[in-house]
């Protein structure tokens, strides 16, 4: 719930690795999709639980969390791949940007 509040996310923003893989933005590994059925759950029930918790927390009389500052002291970068062939890196960058991650970029080392 902390990340949802911090980044103003809802249950609609939550996807599993498999769903991300279907969009071309994540690898298909150790997905909760394989674990949830053992406990009578799935990504949809998880999102419903998140929605219910966010709803209840938003209705509480607690002081709302302050929004993140506009200039964070730390940045956490997410890498989606490392490629030896630039054309492959360009192709992944195109997929990531098409998925809505407009700040994505290629860094050469």
From TrEMBL:
Pfam families noted in UniProt: SPOR
A GO term for molecular function: peptidoglycan binding
Domain SPOR: from-to ranges: 70-109
UniProt cross-references to Gene3D superfamilies, sorted A to Z: Peptidoglycan recognition protein-like
Taxonomic superkingdom: Bacteria
Span of the signal peptide: none
One biological process term in Gene Ontology: peptidoglycan catabolic process
Protein name: Sporulation related domain protein
């Amino acid at each position: 719930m902390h990340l949802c509040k911090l980044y103003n996310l809802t249950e609609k923003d939550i996807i599993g690795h498999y769903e991300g893989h279907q969009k071309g933005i994540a690898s298909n590994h150790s997905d909760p999709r394989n674990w949830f059925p053992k406990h009578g759950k799935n990504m949809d029930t998880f999102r419903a639980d998140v929605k219910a918790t966010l709803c209840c927390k938003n209705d509480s009389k607690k002081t709302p969390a302050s929004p993140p500052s506009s200039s964070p002291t730390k940045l956490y970068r997410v890498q989606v791949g490392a490629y030896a062939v630039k054309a492959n890196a360009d192709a992944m960058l195109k997929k990531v940007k098409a998925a809505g991650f407009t700040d994505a970029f290629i860094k050469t080392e």
